[in-house]
Design brief:
Blueprint (H helix, E strand, L loop, with lengths): L14 H4 L4 E6 L2 E5 L8 E6 L11 H22 L3 E5 L9 E7 L20 H26 L2
Helix pairs in contact: 2-3
């Protein structure tokens, strides 16, 4: 599976144009889903728009609707599979100005709760809990891939 767009706008200095941006899960409909490799937050995914655009408003109305549909589908899949206390969705792009969304499953006992995952940790990670969560991610990856393919592949 190709995770770097073959056509469309690209920026040679952009890490999301040059690489996947995480562990590839699915690619299609002008976007890709990757699992970030965040040590303290294993259930951290990114939905990356393939073409290099900095803002959501740079997309056409149809592209925005497609992206929103994918975000809702991924979020619901994560909620169903993992039962987190809260889902965090963020599109910042201050460091990497390439449109991408962070989808992060959060639990009240995670190292940063209730602060954002980018804040200083407030407690040590529960290694056993994180190991158990990591063991569930391949099944979640497969479920998300199947749901996205069913929704967006012809």
């Amino acid at each position: 599976m190709s995770v770097v767009p073959a056509a469309g706008a690209a920026d040679v200095d952009c890490p999301l144009c040059a690489g996947a941006g995480g562990v590839p899960i699915w690619c299609g409909a002008g976007m890709r889903l990757v699992r970030a490799e965040e040590a303290l937050h294993p259930a951290f995914y990114r939905l990356v728009w393939d073409a290099h655009v900095p803002e959501f408003s740079d997309l056409t109305p149809l592209q925005r609707a497609t992206c929103s549909d994918a975000l809702a589908l991924i979020e619901q899949g994560m909620r169903d599979a993992l039962r987190p206390d809260k889902m965090n969705l963020a599109s910042l792009g201050n460091v990497v100005p390439h449109l991408h969304w962070h989808l992060i499953a959060r639990w009240r006992d995670d190292p940063h709760w209730p602060q954002p995952v980018w804040a200083p940790a407030r407690r040590a990670a529960d290694d056993a809990g994180q190991h158990a969560l990591r063991a569930r991610l391949p099944m979640l990856d497969a479920q998300l891939t199947a749901a996205l393919q069913a929704r967006f592949q012809p």
